[in-house]
Structure formats: C-alpha cells, structure tokens
Specification:
By secondary structure, this protein is α+β, with helices and mostly antiparallel strands. The chain has helices at about 5-35, 35-40, 40-65, 75-105, 105-125, 130-150, 155-190, 200-215, 230-240, 240-255, 280-300, 330-345, and strands spanning about 220-230, 265-270, 270-280, 315-320, 350-355, 365-370, 380. Strand 4 (about 315-320), helix 12 (about 330-345) and strand 5 form a beta-alpha-beta unit. It starts with a helix and ends with a strand.
Amino acid sequence: MDQTDRHHACKELARRGLLGSVFYFLLWLIVLSVTPIGEDLPRFALYVGLIFAVTGICRSILGYFYLHGRTQSRARWFYAYAACVLISGGTWGLATAVVFWSYLPQWPAFLVGFSAAGLVAGGTFSVSSHRVLQVLYIVVTMLPAALTLAFMEEPQARVLALLFVFNAAFLFTIGGSLHRQYWDLQLLSDTDSLTGLANRRRFDRVLRDEVKRARRGDASLSLMLVDVDHFKLYNDSYGHTRGDYVLEVVAERLSQCMRRSQDLAARYGGEEFACVLPSCSKEGARLMAERIQESIDALRLPHLFSPTAPRVTVSLGVVTLESGTPCEPDRLVAQADKLLYQSKEHGRHRATCGLYSNESERESASYWTASPNSDGEGNDHD
C-alpha cells in the first residue's frame, strides 16, 4: 500500500468503527439485564463493562480526530486504534470463556456465545480494509472461548468448541474475500481505464491530503502538470487508436519515473497528466521534469505534423509548495497550469518550474528545455 492507500484504509476503519465503538458496551448491558451474570459475578461484570466503555470512548475520539484531519501521525493513530479494537475483541473473547466456564450448559452461556459469534462477524466486515488487523481480531475474539470449551467436561462443550473453530475458519476465509473485494473496488474506482494511472478522483484526494501535510509544515510538495504537445493534431493525423497508444506509452513512462512509493502519476484529463511529489523540493522537481522529458524523448514516437519536433514531446508546468505555506489545492493547480502555459508560450517541449506564491508577481520561474534535435540533453535558463 502507498501513502494514499494507507490513508484510505485508516479512514474506512474510523468511519466504519463509529457504530462498533459503542456497540460492545450496549450489548454487554443487554446481556447483564437479561441474565444473572451481574448478580453472580458483579466485579467481573463491572470490569468488563468499564473496559468496553473506555475503549469505546477512545475509538470514538480517535475516529473523530482522523475523519476531521486532526491527526499528526497516521502510524501512531493506527496503532492506537488497532489496540482499542483488539482490546475490545479480546475482552469479549475472555468474557465469553468465563461465562462458558461458569454457566454451561445453562442458557446464559449460549446467549453470550451467540453474541460473540455475531460481534466477530460484524467486526470482520468493519476492519476488512486492513487484513492483518482483521485476522488478529478474529483470533483474540474466538480463541479464548474455543480453548476453554476444549478443556471442559460437559458433553456440549466439545461440540461448541468445534463450532467456534469452524466459525473462525469461515470468517477467516470470508474476511480475506472481503478484503480483496474492497481493494479491487477501490482500485477500479481510482484507476483510469485507458492508461492504468490514477484517475482524476484519486488525484484530487491525494493532492488535498498532501497540501494539508505541507501546510502543517511536515514537508514541501511539488505538483507537475504534463501535456502532450499538439496532441489534437496527432489524433487528426494518425487516428484516435494511435493517439490512445501514445497516451498509454507516455503514462507508462511517467509511472516508471515515479520511483518513490509516495509519488503519484495520474491522468488529469485528455492528453494532460499530473504528478504529485510529496517531500520534493523545487530542485528535485526540476530534476524529475528533466527525467520525464528525457524518457519521453527516448521513445522517438513519430509526430511529423508537429510544429515543435518531428516526434512526440511534452511540456511541463511544475510548482513547489514550501512547507508551512498557506495554500489550497485549487490554487496550487492553477499556478502549475500557469507555468504549463508559459512552457507552451515559449515554444513547448520544455519545463517551467516555480515556487508557489500567493502573489503571482513574486513568483520566480526557471526553464529547462530539451532541444528538438537532441537526444534529450537539456540546458538550464534562469
């Protein structure tokens, strides 16, 4: 998973867990109200209820903070949230084991066992975005009761132990299927069907998250817009099938240039692509633009009707947002588009790089140009 996938997985955990955060406590209250457990085991009932209450409150607070962008570290948030989930599941598993040991074959044992089976089924779905957490949750919820039943002498105990094991195996299998389906659907909804790159929907989401990080002062951010030069003329001259092939090949080269897991190449629209480069300085973005132009030039795809060069070329607009600078995603895109327009105005087949500024007249830009007759070697102009 890349950074965006991790963020989306955490967001799904937070959103789906809002109901589960209070469900354990409410279900335990219902069990206590209809069974003699509270009277027979008062301290046990109180401690279990307190654990459910505390972990439920913590999950609600953590979920609220993440969904409202108030979390500084995604990793620390996940570990805290996963701990609450596993503590809740493990507590219910231990409570089920204690009730089995104390009440089997009386009906309170069957009620709590049935509740445990329902809880773990719902929990398996709610954490389906994270497979490891899903497996651990099934284990801590089902294993204590199954082991307890295996060592009991009642005739029903062994049968119930087998049922718990079969239920855990079933949920393990179904959970894996849910996990794969979740990410398959996520991939389909976030992928451009022609090029295989991220689509505009995912680009907007990633850019929004990375701009927030840059505003907080975590790191700088560079945004790159890449446009295939004279693509309409190419389509008119060579046909749309050949034009689609060019887009596919350019997209493949862009993807190859994104060497870090956090870098994102996306199809922005038509013949235009966008690259989000977190923790990337202006100089680093300039070098990336140079690498992209050299990679596209190396293809030597013929474009004999182009006024710029007898092959397919690209123009780039690159803007860098320094850490801690106030900015909105649409403003950053607008400045990158402005720099792309400057590249086109100066003859295309070049990159125009600049720092983001709220005052456009203060914006400084540098140019890197690949000569149409060269093999991709370029010159810097300030």
